[in-house]
């Protein structure tokens, strides 16, 4: 090594030292430590006991783990809606309207304030008797034609999605088809969400609008703890499974994230689409709709892909704070209807004092996330370009 | 012309959509602010906009349960005015705390440090959440249940849900006699709202009189004064004659026992909620606020300095293992935070740092994301800065501080804002590594405020507004840095 190189290396290490030290102690070391921890049984008070693969075996046979994975994925159902909403807002905003900064500021507020205060605010909004949600819903849901209107709207929206799909059938862009399907699916589930198992049949059975005999605010559910009235489907014995809590959390998530970072990313992506493309297609007589699907959508596909991957990764890790603060785990027999994987790790470690098992669950989650990331690397670039 | 008309139409439609969504976004915040401006009891009424409440029977005599007019120290009868004192029992009754210790003795001297004071010759017990019965009889848990409950509490680290989880057991007075319903059955723990260990409060919903073993009615206090009966929206009678009143200079309602119906007067907007949250010694909001501020500023400075230095090493210096080390940094961005959460807790525990400022600050000070961001920015600075400085005789240390850092100001500001906000809002980590009250930061404090004391929503919302305010101010004034930060963050994909 030449003296100059040596000198530079020394300088580099000096500059790197503070960060690297902390990084090694609080990030790198814990990764290995956590893996080791998964082979032990430990409550942090007594000495750890080596139990080999027992934690992992338990993991695979733990019905709760799979239920919580299901919960985690279920709570992510709002993502397509939220991402689609971000895109819609970005498109509308990118028309060089007046007051764009004001709009952007307002839309971004929930993201800026995201945290304990916001979750507690929503808990108060969802208060069954005095919360704003039920106060606003009461007059709307009491409207005699509401149920009809909901169904017509859903059918119209599904029709719209189908039409746009038919429109694009030739090009066969998998991401696009997937996104459209997911949106339709999400819409369906957010509205029918609480019929987690009854699903479509509950809808057919006519119980969807929860409206029969709505007289006072007491007839409306407590969104964070009430179970769903399954009507004649109750013979299925699904009362334990059907709660409003997930729907309430999903709705809050959509509200909070639509105007946030995703919208900003879409705004930037839209600004990068060359103006000439639109001008050329104007001359060819393309409609706005065609312009969107043939120019805008392909041009912003990398951003969409990035947003989707990041949202999925974030969604898999998330859910602890919201569930802890708003539902304290959730309704249900074991009080865990909204418990996610992240929450389960917290519960295992700090409530049941099973650090080893919690570490194993954390690794389980990591493996899922890692798989998605690999999938993203391997197929992502191909799908986008 | 048609084109112009079409554009106008599209623009109006767009504005309509944006305004609608903006309104939807703002309504919860507006509701939060309105709630924070209501009094504790007004929150439970149906109107959205705060209203002024006036005293209905001002000037009437205030009487005790036996009908005698209450007199102050000068012997003058006390009239109902805005803010009359709480009267717990007849004058002359001693008052005891939950453990049965005497905390107010009308014959003896006032006991310092206890929340009892004399006003107008009357004993006033200030702690409204304490389950002292009106006649001064303390309500006690049986030992076995208390133990069981405490164990459960330690295990679960959560305050409580409902009494449903407890086995049915009768509620006893300190002298061992059970509390009875009018039909002779005993009250069980299920009829009681729970707050913390040792804090049973009789359920406000219980409208029937409560009897002691001899069949005498025991007047009791409700968990919190809900003013929501339909015919008389401002008062509620629970058990015996229970009224509400307010002391001069105070905003909260207290329960009065007497025979007069008292109405309460309140200003339309309770700005005093904010003063109360900031100043009240029981709420300790400002202590938690200073904790939060201290932690956030320390983490911010630490993150910015270490990230900038590391970013400089990665972006501006050519050294042998640079790309390998940088790849290592990038790789950790993928590891979910929750994987390192448990080991970090264990590391801090073995260092003996749990429940200290170190635990809150030091692990958060080193960030791969910040390093990445600073590197991206510094790579974009003009080439040859270091060489030019070297010719002038400056070493790299000096170059870094005098040339690179000032040039990186936009990135530094962006990172500072993100770091500050991230720490200010962070909840899980402080929840795990701290437990004592003096180490509590705002998010954790808000959570405790929500679950204890039967949630006073107007004060909870006041606290939430105060916690959100710095974030909103930072955002409004640092918008362009936000946009830049989000886009820089996206580059890592």
Helix content of chain A: 55-70%
* Uncertain ranges of chain A: 193-213
- Report the total helices of chain A: 18
- Structural class designation of chain B: mainly alpha
The appropriate CATH architecture of chain A is: Orthogonal Bundle
Radius of gyration of chain B: 30 Å
Gyration radius of chain A (Cα, Å) is 25 Å
Tell me, rounded to a whole number, the average pLDDT of chain A. 80
**Regarding CATH, which class of chain A?**
Mainly Alpha
Structure commentary:
The complex is a heterodimer of chains A (385) and B (493). By secondary structure, chain A is mainly alpha-helical. Chain A contains 18 helices and 2 strands. In chain A, helix 17 runs antiparallel to helix 18. Chain A is globular. The relative contact order of chain A is 0.14. Chain B has 493 residues and is mostly helical. Chain B is 45% helix and 7% strand. In chain B, the strands form 6 sheets. Chain B has a two-stranded antiparallel ribbon with strand order 1-2. Chain B has a two-stranded antiparallel ribbon with strand order 3-4. Chain B is extended. Classes of the chains: A mainly alpha (385), B mainly alpha (493). Chains A and B meet through helix 1, helix 4, helix 5, helix 6 and helix 12 of A and helix 1, helix 4, helix 5, helix 6 and helix 10 of B.
Structural descriptors:
heterodimer, A: 385 residues, mainly alpha, MetI-like fold, two-stranded antiparallel ribbon, 2 strands, B: 493 residues, 3 domains, two-stranded antiparallel sheet, 45% helix
Topology at a glance:
The complex is a heterodimer of chains A (385) and B (493).
Chain A lengths: L2 H35 L2 E2 L7 E2 L3 H8 L1 H13 L3 H15 L6 H13 L3 H10 L6 H11 L3 H22 L6 H19 L6 H6 L40 H13 L3 H11 L3 H9 L4 H12 L1 H17 L2 H8 L13 H11 L3 H30 L1
Antiparallel strand pairs in A: 1-2
Chain B lengths: L1 H35 L58 E2 L5 E3 L11 E4 L2 E4 L13 E2 L2 H14 L15 E2 L18 E3 L5 E3 L7 E2 L5 E2 L23 E4 L8 E4 L14 H8 L5 H32 L5 H13 L2 H15 L5 H5 L6 H12 L5 H7 L4 H12 L1 H17 L2 H6 L8 H10 L5 H21 L1 H13 L2
Antiparallel strand pairs in B: 1-2, 3-4, 5-6, 7-8, 9-10, 11-12
């Amino acid at each position: 090594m030449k003296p100059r190189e040596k000198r530079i290396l020394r300088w580099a290490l000096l500059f790197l030292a503070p960060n690297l030290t902390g990084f090694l102690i609080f990030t790198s070391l814990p990764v290995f430590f956590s893996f080791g921890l998964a082979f032990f049984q430990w409550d942090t008070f007594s000495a750890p006991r080596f139990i080999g693969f027992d934690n992992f075996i338990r993991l695979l046979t733990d019905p709760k783990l799979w239920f919580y994975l299901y919960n985690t994925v279920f709570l992510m159902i709002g993502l397509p809606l939220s991402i689609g909403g971000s895109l819609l807002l970005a498109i509308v905003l990118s028309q060089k309207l007046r007051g764009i900064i004001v709009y952007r500021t307002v839309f971004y507020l929930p993201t800026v304030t995201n945290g304990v205060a916001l979750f507690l605010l929503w808990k108060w909004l969802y208060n069954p008797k005095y919360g704003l949600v039920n106060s606003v819903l009461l007059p709307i849901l009491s409207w005699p034609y509401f149920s009809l209107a909901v169904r017509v709207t859903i059918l119209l929206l599904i029709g719209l999605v189908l039409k746009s799909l038919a429109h694009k059938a030739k090009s066969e862009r998998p991401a696009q088809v997937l996104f459209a399907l997911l949106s339709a699916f999400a819409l369906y589930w957010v509205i029918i969400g609480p019929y987690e198992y009854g699903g479509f049949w509950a809808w057919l059975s006519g119980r969807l609008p929860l409206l029969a005999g709505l007289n006072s605010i007491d007839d409306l559910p407590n969104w964070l703890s009430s179970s769903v009235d399954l009507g004649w489907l109750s013979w299925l014995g699904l009362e334990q499974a059907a709660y409003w809590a997930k729907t309430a959390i999903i709705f809050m998530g959509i509200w909070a994230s639509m105007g946030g970072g995703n919208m900003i990313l879409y705004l930037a992506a839209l600004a990068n689409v060359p103006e000439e493309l639109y001008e050329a297609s104007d001359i060819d007589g393309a409609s706005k709709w065609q312009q969107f699907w043939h120019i805008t959508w392909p041009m912003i596909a990398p951003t969409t892909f990035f947003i989707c991957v990041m949202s999925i990764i974030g969604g898999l890790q998330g859910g602890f704070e919201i569930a802890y603060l708003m539902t304290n785990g959730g309704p249900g027999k074991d009080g865990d209807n909204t418990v996610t994987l992240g929450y389960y790790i917290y519960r295992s470690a700090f409530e049941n004092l099973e650090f080893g098992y919690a570490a194993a669950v954390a690794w389980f989650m990591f493996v899922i996330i890692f798989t998605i990331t690999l999938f993203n690397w391997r197929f992502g670039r191909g799908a986008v370009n | 012309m048609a084109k112009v008309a079409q554009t106008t139409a599209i623009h109006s439609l767009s504005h309509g959509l944006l305004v609608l969504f903006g309104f939807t976004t703002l309504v919860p915040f507006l509701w939060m602010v309105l709630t924070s401006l209501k009094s504790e009891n007004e929150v439970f009424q149906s109107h959205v906009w705060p209203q002024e409440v006036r005293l209905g029977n001002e000037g009437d005599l205030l009487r005790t349960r036996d009908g005698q007019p209450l007199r102050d120290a000068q012997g003058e009868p006390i009239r109902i005015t805005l803010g009359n004192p709480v009267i717990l029992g007849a004058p002359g009754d001693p008052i005891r705390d939950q453990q049965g210790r005497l905390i107010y003795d009308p014959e003896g001297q006032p006991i310092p440090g206890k929340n009892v004071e004399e006003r107008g010759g009357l004993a006033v017990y200030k702690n409204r959440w304490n389950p002292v019965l009106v006649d001064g009889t303390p309500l006690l848990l049986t030992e076995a249940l208390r133990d069981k409950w405490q164990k459960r509490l330690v295990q679960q680290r959560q305050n409580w849900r409902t009494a449903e989880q407890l086995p049915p057991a009768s509620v006893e007075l300190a002298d061992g006699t059970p509390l009875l319903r009018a039909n002779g059955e005993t009250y069980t723990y299920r009829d009681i709202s729970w707050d913390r260990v040792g804090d049973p409060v009789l359920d406000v919903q219980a409208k029937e009189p409560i009897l002691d073993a001899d069949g005498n009615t025991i007047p009791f206090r409700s968990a919190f004064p809900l003013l929501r009966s339909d015919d008389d929206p401002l008062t509620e009678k629970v058990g015996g004659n229970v009224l509400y009143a307010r002391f001069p200079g105070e905003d909260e309602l207290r329960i009065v026992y007497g025979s007069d119906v008292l109405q309460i007067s309140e200003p339309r907007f309770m700005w005093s909620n904010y003063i109360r949250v900031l100043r009240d010694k029981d709420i300790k909001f400002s202590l938690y606020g200073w904790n939060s501020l201290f932690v956030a500023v320390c983490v911010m400075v630490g993150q910015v300095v270490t990230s900038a230095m590391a970013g400089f090493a990665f972006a501006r210096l050519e050294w042998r293992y640079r790309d390998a080390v940088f790849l290592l940094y990038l790789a950790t961005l993928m590891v979910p935070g929750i994987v390192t959460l448990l080991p970090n807790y264990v590391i801090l525990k073995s260092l003996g740092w749990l429940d200290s400022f170190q635990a809150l600050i030091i692990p958060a000070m080193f960030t791969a994301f910040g390093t990445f961001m600073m590197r991206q920015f510094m790579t974009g600075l003009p080439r040859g800065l270091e060489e030019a400085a070297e010719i002038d005789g400056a070493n790299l240390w000096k170059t870094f501080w005098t040339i690179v850092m000032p040039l990186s100001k936009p990135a530094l500001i962006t990172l500072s804002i993100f770091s500050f906000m991230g720490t200010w809002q962070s909840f899980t980590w402080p929840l795990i590594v701290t437990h004592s009250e003096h180490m509590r930061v705002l998010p954790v404090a808000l959570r405790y405020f929500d679950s204890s004391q039967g949630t006073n929503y107007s004060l909870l919302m006041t606290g939430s507004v105060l916690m959100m305010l710095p974030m909103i101010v930072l955002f409004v004034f640092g918008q362009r840095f936000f946009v830049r930060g989000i886009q820089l963050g996206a580059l890592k994909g």
